[in-house]
Structure prediction request, 155 residues.
Amino acid sequence: MIPDPVLNVKSALTAAGAQDTVRIFEDKVPTAAAAALVLGCEVAAITNSLVFELNGAPLLILASGAARVDTGLVADQLGTGKIRRAAPDFVLAHTGQEVGGVAPVGHPKKLRTILDVSLQTRPVLWAGAGDHNSMFSITYEELARITAAEPLQVR
Prediction:
């Protein structure tokens, strides 16, 4: 049985006109390194979906698994206040997905989304698909389109 968060991601991909490339693994892939190992790709091809809190609202940053997000740099570019890493209960409330399995899509409501421009050098990206056992593949251009993300330097 496919978990509801993964079904939500599959539905969101289909509704956006994107290919449903969700793969479900027997073992958990909760980190970029674990996912890259199972998928046989570089960590830089893994797209982490990281939820931050900005003025009480969620901010989703889609960043390369090979990089750490510089929240000060992002805040400066956005012209906003301090960006803080969101608590797990905040992430679950806004995405319907647990930390470590958050997908770029399939959330109850549209989230403001930033897309790491460094990801555009990869021909294929892999992103979480709603739980710790699922991933999907997508191109940078398609990910930007289906998330309506703002491209930004995040590191």
